[in-house]
Amino acid sequence: MLTFWGAKHSYCDRINRRDFLHIGGLGLGGLALPELLRARAQAGVKSGPRAVIMICLAGGPSHMDMYDLKPGAPEDYRGEFKPIHTNVPGFEICEHMPLQAQIADKLAVVRSLQWVEPMQHELEEVYTGFPQAGKRPCFGSVISRFGKGHDPRLPRFVSLQPTDAESPMYVGPAHAALPVPYVNTATRNLVLPQRMTLDRLDDRKKLMATFDDLRRDLDARGSMHATDTFTAQALEMITSPKAREAFDIYREPDKVRQRYGDKDAKYSYVSQKLDSPWPTEKFLLARRLVEAGVSVVTMRVGSWDQHGNVIQASGGKNIFYNLSTALPLLDRSLYALVTDLHERGLDKEVLVLVWGEFGRTPKISQGGRDHWPDAGFALFAGGGLKMGQVIGETDSKGARPKNRPLGPQNVLSTIYHALGIDPAQTLPDFTGRPQYLLDEREPITELL
Asked: Which domain holds residue 60?
């Protein structure tokens, strides 16, 4: 039986996707994948941006200790880390990220982001540009819908750690993410069931076709048509080796995998032990997927909710100890990903974005920092954007933008513009009312 491991998801009508396909899939050899599959790839050689890797540092990464250090601030603000110079004048970052310092000319950081959500860990602004109450589709589904090119052997949109914030909403279930919660389970789900030959599969396809008219007559909502689409795409994927090869990171030479770091690397979150796994292999898998032709890959990495009282309650030291174990891992992963894309000639085609749902309080509290939506960062790489620059500035204590205040929709608008998608386009929501892709449609012009 073909299955895909991971959490269940529901439609807005509360019908579970797995149950829905069991009802509508007619038992195609136990095929449980169809509703997840999308398609998108290169149609010839691409000269411009065509794909995005979005790395979400969920929990609220500390801008004050990563990309916006304030060495001149009072002691209870500036923290323990020192800034270091990079290969770009005026572009300084944390001392625990020396590898990124070597490739700052391939990076651009925005230091003046602000979020609408006040204090909660709602990732909707990261994935949609809107607060949770906005009920908007995630950017990956938008790119799946409006992006150019189509290769049914590959998904358009892959999430390497699915979250509820990645809902396609009214863009439609055909543009939902393919969830891959664990790297080593991906390829085993892209094979035919045991004893299922291509000839037998073709017979079942013909049988399914005989039911098409009846199913469409019974379907008043169009859901069955979507299921037919997913099934066709699923069949394309499992009968072609391209998807299996893209998901198989062990096709990479040892030296390439080693460049990304130890697959068993761990860091300390709130304790004094290295007990939290770092997802090294997801960075390599993301590169393989966009190289093969996937349009959007998202992942959540690390734990960044560094409250002092939580650290103390867990017997930990402080935010600086925890970050000193996590930042070098992030540093190596980003260095490997960005460098790898450049060496493969993909830096103009693939845009990398790193950010979280907000920053952290400038003032240290009980050895930690709390939620702070008034200031934070976004790190960009590649995608044909202008690299080697710092955009925006916060005040002397890192509390609020001093100039060039920007928001999540500006970030996503920049991505849409880079991919040739007009954010002023509209889609009808569930009530039939037209909704713009974004309300704040100004991109970050310095990057373009």
From this structure: 43-185+242-436
- Give strand pairing partners of 163: none
DSSP 90: T
Report the Cα 315 to chain-centroid distance in Å: 32
Average pLDDT per consecutive 10 residues, the chain (448 residues; last block may be shorter): 39 36 34 37 58 97 98 97 98 98 98 87 95 96 90 90 95 93 63 53 51 50 51 62 87 94 96 96 96 96 97 97 98 98 97 97 97 97 98 98 98 97 97 97 97
CATH code of the domain covering residue 128: 3.40.720
| Cα–Cα distances in angstroms (integers) from residue 298 to residues 162, 165, 177, 248, 379, in the given order | 8, 12, 9, 17, 15
At what angle are helices 408-418 and 139-146 packed, to 10 degrees? 20
**Amino acid identity at 78:** R
The answer to whether 430 and 134 have CB atoms below 8 angstroms apart is: no
- Is 25 within a domain? no
Q: Is 414 among the domain residues?
A: yes
Report if residue 13 sits inside a domain.
no
